[in-house]
Amino acid sequence: MTGYRGEVQRILRAASVKVGDKIKAVSRGRTYVGVLMPRTELGDPDHLVLKLDNGYNIGVKVGRSTKVALLESRELPKLAVPKPAVVPDASKPRVTIVGTGGTIASRVDYRTGAVYPAFTAEDIYNAVPEIAEIANVKVVQACNVFSEHMIPELWAKVARIVAKEINDGATGVVVAHGTDTMGYTAAALSFMLQGLFRPVVLVGSQRSSDRPSSDAALNLISAVAVAAKSDIAEVTVVMHGSTEDDHCLIHRGTKVRKCHTSRRDAFQSINDIPLGMVREGQIVMFRDDYRRAGSAGRVRVQDRLEKRVALVKTTPGLPASVIKGIIASGDRGIVLEGTGLGHVPQTLFEGIELAQRRKIPVVMTSQCLWGRVDMNVYSTGRELLQLGVIPAEDMLPEVAWVKLMWVLGRTRDLERVARLMRQNLAGEITPRTRPDAFLKPLFTPG
Amino acid sequence: MTGYRGEVQRILRAASVKVGDKIKAVSRGRTYVGVLMPRTELGDPDHLVLKLDNGYNIGVKVGRSTKVALLESRELPKLAVPKPAVVPDASKPRVTIVGTGGTIASRVDYRTGAVYPAFTAEDIYNAVPEIAEIANVKVVQACNVFSEHMIPELWAKVARIVAKEINDGATGVVVAHGTDTMGYTAAALSFMLQGLFRPVVLVGSQRSSDRPSSDAALNLISAVAVAAKSDIAEVTVVMHGSTEDDHCLIHRGTKVRKCHTSRRDAFQSINDIPLGMVREGQIVMFRDDYRRAGSAGRVRVQDRLEKRVALVKTTPGLPASVIKGIIASGDRGIVLEGTGLGHVPQTLFEGIELAQRRKIPVVMTSQCLWGRVDMNVYSTGRELLQLGVIPAEDMLPEVAWVKLMWVLGRTRDLERVARLMRQNLAGEITPRTRPDAFLKPLFTPG
After folding, report:
1. Looking at residue A55, what is its pLDDT?
2. How many CB atoms sit inside 10 A of residue A444's CB?
3. What H or E segment, with its residue span, contains residue A8?
4. Does any domain span residue B437?
5. CA A164 to CA A298: how far, in whole Å?
6. How many CB atoms are located within 10 Å of the residue A409 CB?
7. Residues A279 and A178 placed together within one structural domain of the fold
8. What span, in angstroms and rounded, lies between the C-alpha atoms of A301 and A124?
9. What ipTM goes with this model?
10. Domain of B356?
11. Which residues have a Cβ under 8 Å from the Cβ of B351 and sit 6 or more positions away?
């Protein structure tokens, strides 16, 4: 009865259901039918988790009046056809998959439609047999949280595991991660992993792996391919490049953003083109300005962060009291997501002046997301520069936020902070924007 | 000496320069060369404003040591060729252009390269003669601010002017607006103008009108065409549809966003396709689900807003103290820009519970921007629903913020707020997302 305790466990036992069974639960007048899933670490202990037929997991609040009934007893999926045991092949690259939680870090079974967070190398080979052709896989579980609950402490934990694996001889590392905050973690790892000489690839899935339209298998195969075979010594994100199940894009970890709540091609490079793609198992690079992998080196982890940094999206008429409140709360840095070329309402200036007096760095990004901040163009921008605001070039607001946390973990000296923020440390600033580093609507007038 | 006072006026007078002259200013060791511009209402009184040769305006701080020299005395541009006076043609539609400030509300002169914020119907005809072919133009100046300094009070002022013009018989109204916060104003007008029966079109320019690459003329011509000739009784934004100077897109005012800091095709419809386009003076509609114009009616203005509404973009590990601080500051509503399908970190839940106890509505949008919030999919979303969080469907975060201000101006009843937020009032919620309502990168792998 993986993970369930107390009243919930009692009710499940009374109904003779176990994890993996198809059950019916009636709670507060509503009926739910699905496969009973193991409880996750951070889940509410008063809930049971069901995987519905549409592939989604839901939590059902359990009370004294909750009724549970077994519909179909199911065993943990076994291999349908006996397979030769996967014997490590010394000639193959060694790839470590670091699990953090989320859909892709599940045991995928194509036949039964069930998903289990159990997570071993054998599970991976069984679920996606193509992986065994590419690499010898080792699995390390860093944590098990939905990515919306990732916290900076866990970024650091993942960074230390990644560094250890690479320093111990891994050809590359794949980090399986929920998609919600994958961009934040990718940026954090990009800054934390110093002297990187092997590929580090974040991967996730937008549709859980038991749905017909799941992107999990192709994403995982492509990520392992990049970790095993590419010469990219950077932190990248590998996800579907289209809604066809035909290729994945390799995005730089500091230039990527989840741009859709549900589409498989949600991840897009912003203000830059992707580094390359994986199609039919082959890696195709689009450019050559990336850090090259080497056969030897030593990764160091700089994981010290100043967590007290605020990200503020500005709105018309936003009062200075917002900035003053942030300063009063003890925050040590502020990233503004301003408008256009890097502007904020005049109503905010007084708060920025206070930050300046308190030696709290204020960094400017744009809520346009695409394009570059340029504060020399209009008087508002020039006035903000005179107030000491640091322009973040073409950095994504959330990447600037992660970077400022990391920079403030190294120095509190305002001039050094400004210099580091304006310096391209991990590909987060594109020196020259390509004219095709923008979007166009899928819709074209007929 | 339009707008300059005190020390600045004294220095300019001493150098015998006037607005429109090309001058050199030496301030704090730096030399600036450009055309002296009139001072804007909200500018710092200690600055003079120069238009540089590259078309950008800069502010130069003036002190006792500032040196100013006249390079070239220039008169306000006159028409090079005598034109027949524009005689109002009773058969032509009547379009009112409401000026709010920003680049497009300037007097554009193709020959001299000078730009003046002087703003009369004659100026418009002189600058963009095509306009006179389309409509009889009347000009009303609502305010003169850069759009980053627009405040909700000015939205209301613009709404009242627009309503009056339509009720007085205008065929349509064009609102000339800076681009930074045009989306916010378009959303506000969409909610405020009730019973709209004529077109209301917001227009701006990304490049100031004296630059060769300016989008001002085509945008203005297209906006006047939509106001004069279309049957769209909605608030729309009309801006360049590509970097070619060949067509403008007509975006619904509640579904549009500035997606680039500098490109002419910065404005994009999000989660929906544009309503149509203007090409070679012709209006081409892409769809028929829009509110149709009528010949008679009465526009009412509902301009009451609750200004104390916060927009919070969530970040990993964001502490509940942020929400508590917002509540303590007296805010009456909160819009969250969460992750993925509508999630926030568990660390925030306690703050949301407090908001719920204080009867402060909390609305969920997604920082993905594209796609729909769906909080029934994962346990995090379901828990937030149980805490009373109101899902904002596929609304843009900033549109949900404007809408919540407007809804709270009508009612404080939490259930009514939730119902209104989930109801499509002005096209802000797309009931069914088209599969092509997404973006693709301009870059395509070769």
Report:
1. 62
2. 9
3. helix A6-14
4. no
5. 9
6. 18
7. yes
8. 28
9. 0.83
10. 309-422
11. B319, B320, B321, B322, B323, B324, B327
Give chain B's domain count. 3
H or E element, residue A418: helix A414-422
- b vs e for B167-181, b when ≥16 Cβ sit within 10 Å of the residue's Cβ? beebbbbbbbbbbbb
Q: Indicate whether B431 belongs to any domain.
A: no
Contact residues, chain A, for B321 at CB < 8 Å: 329
Residues B159 and B100 in one domain: yes
pLDDT, tens only, B155-213: 999 999 999 999 999 999 999 999 999 999 999 999 999 999 999 999 999 877 656 67
Contacts of A316 in chain B (CB under 8 A): 150-152, 155, 181, 184-185
Domain co-membership, B284 together with B156: yes
Q: Are residues A134 and A107 in the same domain?
A: yes
Contacts of B445 in chain A (CB under 8 A): 277, 284, 286
The predicted structure's pLDDT at residue B209: 62
Mean pLDDT, residues A19-36: 86
Give the nearest partner residue to B258 out of A44, A347, A368, using CB atoms. A368
**A200, A236 in Cβ contact below 8 A?**
yes
| CA distance to partner chain A, nearest, from residue B134 (Å) | 24
Task: State pTM to two decimals.
Answer: 0.84
CATH number, residue B19 = 2.30.30.520
Residue A412, classified by CB atoms within 10 Å of its CB into exposed (0-12), middle (13-18) or buried (19+), is middle
List, for residues A195-227, the tens digit of each pLDDT value: 999 999 999 998 776 566 778 889 999 999 999
Quick check: is A44 catalytic?
no
- B61 is an active site residue: no
DSSP assignment string, A34-61: EEEEPPPTTS-TTEEEEE-TTS-EEEEE
Chain A to chain B Cβ contacts (< 8 Å) = 260
Measure in Å the smallest separation between the Cα of B121 and chain A Cα atoms: 26
